[in-house]
Amino acid sequence: MKEFISKNQVCKLHPGQQVIGKWHRKSYKIVKQLGYGATGTVYLAHGVDGAVALKVGAESMAISSEVNVLQQLSKVQGQHLGPSFIDVDDIITSEGTYPFYVMEYLEGEPLIPFWQKHRPEWLGILMVQLLSDLDRLHRIGWIFGDLKPENLIVTGPPYRIRWMDVGGTTMKGRAIKEYTEFFDRGYWGLGSRKAEPSYDLYSVAMIMINSRYPSRFDKKPSSAPYKQLQKAIVNDTILKKYQSTIEGALQGKFSEAMAMRKSLVSQVGSSDSRREYKVTRRTQAPTKQRKKKKKQPAKKSSAIFETFLVGSFLLLVYILYWFGQMM
Amino acid sequence: MSRGTLRQILLLTDGCSNTGEDPIAMAALAKEEGITINVIGVIEQGQMSEQGIQEVEGIAMAGGGVSQIVYTQQLSQTVQMVTRKGMTQTIQGVVSKELEGILGKETSMEDLEPEKRGQVTEVVDELGETMDLDILILVDTSASMKSKLPMVQEALTDLSVSLNARTGDNQFSVYSFPAKRKSIERRLNWTPKLETLTGVFDKLSSGGVTPTGPALQEALNAFRKRMKKKEQPIDEGIYLEEPGM
Ligand SMILES: Nc1ncnc2c1ncn2[C@@H]1O[C@H](COP(=O)(O)OP(=O)(O)O)[C@@H](O)[C@H]1O
To answer: Which active-site residues of A does the annotation give?
Structure first.
């Protein structure tokens, strides 16, 4: 009970160190630190089946709450939501016992730098992917909560947006557990902090705004928050293209992710949006994987296709992995 | 059906007490009566004095709560985080006691298999969502705090946005100190709507003294009065149903 967030002292592991779980006796070799956050430090490590991400925390509650969410996500069919869950255990060090968990290692590029490097249509495409995932999350009764670029990563090529930090994931109907002001509709005075689909969709709209205003901005005391955001949208040529979708999400007009996705899909690729919509649909049939894989992602459409391909591929790996686990 | 009430005092201050009772002793007393004390140390720039930090942390530790030193710009998010952490910590403490009752003494979260911890976490989460919360906010309005008060007000409004999204009921009251002729002054009587706070910090009687200890003592009295009115025995802070284990 002597826990202070001001002094978040976490267990430090060093490269080369062997970590053996106290309960399950699985062993992991630490490669390097990947990052750290409010609840712990994440390391790249090697387990028996290859590279994994290992998160060590100081507080069992926080760790076990994230594990709960990862395990829930594992039950969802289709493309994996969040990193897949691998193991949870304790590590005994000379300073004490610390809880940790192991998950799939996601290798990729942070969202904002990715967008800065690639053509503007990737803004819409990655958000369409994100909305499909959110839809599946919402369907099992969870809300992501703390949705922001830092909690997302673009894996590939083929490019696919993935979630990293599921610490803010909250059961539908409860109060949002964790949020970041810029992405929080409560901060902007545009809605409650009740966990419902429209809460996440608001954050998606703010991520889109953030993509064009990488250093973000504060709420201006002088103007109405919604007016301020609206101005930010119309002053940017790329955001302006998605104006109706972004504004709809900011106003809570979409009650589910699929509605926002549909609106966004119709705006991605100004030249031939209908074709792109078809491409997305077609990829849901998992049969034609091989053939398409060799194609260069020169055309926009095939790039989208590949993006969905990686999804199916990861699903396959995941299924194989679980088969491996069961034997 | 009510699951009982969590009681918290949230102290917002920017430095050291310099008169009257020891605030850490008052915090310890509050904890004995089932009231958790969370403390936020507010600074504008630079750092808080070592002595100030020690007091902020000391009060929270003695009061069974959480503390955080923060710049005014980050106040809103910190206030909600500290409040939430404080609630979780209190509930966790009670659930751990229940666990000991069920599984024998010396059983803490860490002694459980990781798989079982998830269930405990879920119980704690659920209680945090559904329990009622009485929160008395105690704001230091001594001279040096003056410039920070608009941010304090905004942070408190924001806190009500967070807490009102919960399923459980919330009751807020706000007091400030120092005050004329007494330790604290009531700014807002118990209400579920913290938004009504607007403007209450405008007329201030600020002076050079920071009587944090006496202020905490008075806050405790205010709490006792409320509990008596509701005819709840003081020492039964929280009632729990069987944690679903
Ligand atoms: N599964 C993962 N694969 C690769 N890197 C990860 C993974 N999980 C976390 N990280 C890295 O660790 C950092 C901190 O992890 P995060 O879960 O966000 O911490 P917290 O929830 O405590 O803020 C992330 O920003 C990311 O760089």
So the answer is: 146
